[in-house]
Structure formats: structure tokens, C-alpha cells
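User: Here's a protein and a ligand (PBG). What would the complex look like?
Assistant: Let me lay out the input and then the predicted complex.
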Amino acid sequence: MFPDSRSRRSRSGVRIRKMLTETRLHRDDLVLPLFFDETLSSVRYTDSMPGVPTYPVSDAEKVAERVQAAGVNAVLLFGIPKHKDSEASGAYADDGVVQKVIREFKAHSDVLVIADLCMCEYTDHGHCGVIHNGEINNDWTIGRYGAIAVSLANAGVDMVAPSGMMDGQVSAIRDSLDLGGHNNTSIMAYSAKFCSSFYGPFRDIAHSVPVAGGRETHQMNIANSREAMSEIAMDIEEGADIIMVKPAMPYLDIIREARSRFDVPIAAYQVSGEYAMIKAAAKNGWIDERRVMIESLTSIKRAGADILISYFAEDAIKELEQ
Ligand code: PBG
């Protein structure tokens, strides 16, 4: 009989569509990035990231309680220090901005606390490592990353997320953590982090625009997929517990390819530019923000990501609860 198959049968009502849904977002998939700035005494908003506040450190307790009450399972912390210098010493100070926030979160919530581990918010030149003779000194820098990791772990962090794309960073961090007695601190490695223009609004928030030069000597060429797979393989070999692809939506093919090759958990970061585009279009009335938010997150999970890092996390959780 014509037609031989009728796909529309399976789409004919709400109940059957629900039953046949292949990918389901869950609030525990989501990770909420949070910004704390040591120089602030009240919340600051950034034009290019509507709805994403930067908090003063004194708000940490309140924020920890709020996000826990909102059903957030995990947060990813970023800090903007009072003092920046060429060595990023604020990144590994015992009373550094993120260290203080970690202690507040651990004291006032049981949310999983992940800390971004990089130097670019802490250096006066805005680069992700220590500069020697006009270049980022890779091996010197990863030693410092180890010290940052230990300092974050001493403050009680559950997981560190190295985002600097230095060679050997995961093994240097793993060694330092283990030697420092922190063998239970996990590593979520930004393994396939592309040199993307989608990070623009983040740099407005984090004040981490390099004073001169870009990040193309360490972040990946946007055109490369095979190289992304070898970066991921290296990080797994070096001891990463979770690997990450970043950005997310423009790199769904990379997520899918990683999913088919590797069995470790995969995180994907829906970055600031992805968020800002959706926000801007929605503000103009050109798209439906809630539906596009859910569609974008679903697409990232469908591609193969287990963990979704998104500035929409809190809103998405609200939406999923309806
Ligand atoms: C580096 C870091 C960046 C982001 C996360 N970690 C910025 C960069 O590489 O320039 C970008 C996140 C986003 O755009 O949302 N510490």
C-alpha cells in the first residue's frame, strides 16, 4: 500500500511524541558558570552578557544558597582578582578570589564546585601563561598550573578545569595534585578548545583580553577535527577524568566524533558568544528565547555531550521543571 511507511503516525500526539523522545535534558546535565570579582562591592552587569551578573566575593554565601535552592548540581567558577601581575600570582594565592569563593560554597552548599584553571584573568598582559622572551613559556607555565591546582584543592574544590591549552598541562596538574595529597580532585580538561571568536563577551566580563597578540599559538585551529581527536587522546592518556569540547554548537561534529571514539564523559561548553547571540535575537523578538535555549542544549546533548556547561543553566532548569 502507498505510502509504505508513515513516520507521521509516530508524531501524531503529545503522548506518543513524549514516548519516542530520544534525547532528554536533565537538570543534572547542566553546569552553571559563575563570575566573582574581588574589586566589586555590589553586582556588576555586562552589556554583552545580559542576565549574567558578576558578583562581589561577599555575595558568595548568598549565591551558593540560591543556586542550590534552584536545583543547580554543579557550578564552574571564574575569578577576577584585585591585583594582576606578570606571574598570575593571584591565581595560586591561598586567599585568592576563587579560593575564597570555593570556601564559601563548601561551607554553605553541597553543590559540586568546579574551578576554571587558567592565568589569563590573573596576568597583567592577559595571556594564559608566563611570558619569557616575548613568548608563553609552556613548561614553566604548566608548573604554575600545578601550583594553582593545589591551591584550589586546598580550598576544597571538587574538580579543576584547565583551560589554557598548554602541552602537558593535564599530567603536570595530576602530578601536583597527587603529590599534594589531592588524589580525589578530578580534572575536567578543556581538551579541544578552539581559537574561537565566540569568546568575545566572556573577555568583556573577565577582563581578559590580551594586551597584545592572540591565543592562536595554543588554542586550536577552528578548521581541525583530526587534531581535536589527538588532543583529546593525549588528555585522556595524561589522566583527564572528563574531556571538553568548546565552543559547543559550532562544533557539534567534534562532539559527535569524540563520542564515537572515546568512552570518557564528554563536556561541551556553550560559550558566551553562543549565549549572547540567542539573547540578542530574543531581545529583538526575532526568536523565542526559551524554545531556542532548549533546542540548542538538546542539540549539544544529542551530538553526544554528557555535561552541558551553559549560562542558561538556571533558566533551563526552571523550564525543565514545568
Ligand atoms: C580561559 C577561558 C575562556 C573561556 C573559558 N575559560 C576565555 C578564553 O579562552 O579567552 C571562554 C568562555 C566563554 O566564552 O564563555 N580562562
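Summary: The chain has eleven helices and twelve strands.
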